[in-house]
Amino acid sequence: MATILIPTPLRKFTGNAAQLNVDAANIGDAVKAVTEKYPDVKKHLLDENGQIRSFINIFVGEDDIRDLQQEQTSLHAYTEVSIIPAIAGGI
């Protein structure tokens, strides 16, 4: 099972879970599993077409899925997946 690390801003939509274990073959399946278990997080992760929002960064280990195979990036047992939403700020 892969472990999905949930960032603090999204934990209120996952019952305050900091991490979730999912049985998924790839990132797309993992995100689907998370959004099915916690429907309130779906609008924060996926756009209206069901695609991962452009401002959501997902890492498998230390690798950005954009540099891999995006949603088709394979997951293996004990893989850590980090979801990192973009943080807006300014001076």
- Provide the CATH top-level class: Alpha Beta
- Integer-rounded radius of gyration: 12 Å
Taking the alpha carbons of the first and last residues, their distance comes to 42 Å
Shape: globular
**What is the CATH topology classification name?**
Ubiquitin-like (UB roll)
CATH architecture: Roll
Broad structural category: alpha+beta
Q: Tell me the helix content.
A: 10-25%
Q: How would a crystallographer describe the biggest sheet?
A: 5 strands, mixed
Determine the strand fraction and express it as a percent band. Answer: 15-25%
Total beta-strand segments: 5
Whole-number tally of structural domains:
1
Query: What is the number of helices?
Result: 2
Describe the structure.
This protein is of the alpha+beta class. The protein has one domain (2-85): Ubiquitin-like (UB roll) (Roll). The chain has helices at 27-37, 42-45, and strands at 2-5, 19-22, 56-60, 63-64, 80-85. It has a 5-stranded mixed sheet, with helices on one face. The longest helix is centred in the middle third of the chain and has 11 residues, at 27-37. The chain is globular and about 25 Å long. 16% of the residues are buried.
Provide the descriptors you would attach to this structure in a database record.
alpha+beta; 5-stranded mixed sheet; Ubiquitin-like (UB roll); 91 residues
Present the secondary structure layout.
Elements: E1 2-5, E2 19-22, H1 27-37, H2 42-45, E3 56-60, E4 63-64, E5 80-85
Parallel strand pairs: 1-5
Antiparallel strand pairs: 1-2, 3-4, 3-5
Give a short overview:
With 91 residues, this protein is α+β, with helices and mostly antiparallel strands.
